[in-house]
Recover the amino acids of this structure.
């Protein structure tokens, strides 16, 4: 391995260490307490080394949020592929989204700015909208199968996304006084009523 390749590998390793340390700190201390200095201390490098790899904390948060969206996208695709009928796909996709949110709370908070500023505003890649796109596709197919007006698919799927995201947000921000079973039951009933309404 040449000198250039060695340096490139070392650079990538430091970059990965920075992202891993930032995510680990967020899990233990919360996103709000994250700083470039804490990240530097965690990887046992000086702050300028962190700045050599990322312009600022926002750039680190953006990179981590993209990783979250990629992980979510993989889970949604898995759920979709388990079913052929669009109504069953829709239910599976929503369920996978719900499970991802609570299994990966730190990712979800960062991805959607829950209790903090949303990272990467205006910069997100296509993975950002994969859930909404999949909801739309399923909604469109169900409407078409039912002989209803497909022009309503966009509005209807956006309404479902808002309901799902709203329930998750409420659950995450007020988990002390709202039973998780109540919210999951509400979610399931909302999805069933949504499919019937199409």
């Amino acid at each position: 391995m040449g000198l250039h390749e060695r340096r490139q590998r070392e650079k990538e390793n430091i970059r990965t260490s920075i992202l891993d340390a930032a995510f680990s700190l967020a899990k233990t201390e919360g996103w709000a307490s994250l700083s470039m200095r804490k990240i530097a201390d965690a990887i046992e490098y000086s702050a300028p080394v962190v700045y050599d790899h990322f312009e600022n904390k926002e750039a680190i948060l953006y990179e981590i949020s993209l990783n979250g969206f990629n992980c979510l996208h993989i889970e949604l695709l898995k759920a979709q592929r388990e079913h052929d009928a669009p109504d069953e796909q829709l239910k599976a996709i929503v369920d996978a989204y719900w499970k991802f949110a609570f299994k990966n709370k730190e990712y979800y908070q960062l991805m959607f700015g829950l209790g903090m500023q949303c990272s990467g505003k205006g910069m997100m890649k296509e993975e950002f909208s994969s859930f909404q796109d999949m909801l739309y596709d399923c909604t469109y197919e169900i409407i078409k199968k039912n002989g209803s007006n497909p022009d309503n698919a966009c509005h209807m799927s956006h309404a479902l996304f808002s309901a799902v995201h709203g329930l998750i947000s409420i659950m995450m921000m007020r988990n002390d006084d709202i039973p998780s079973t109540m919210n999951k039951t509400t979610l399931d009933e909302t999805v069933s009523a949504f499919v019937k309404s199409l």
Q: What stands out?
A: The chain has a mean pLDDT of 89.
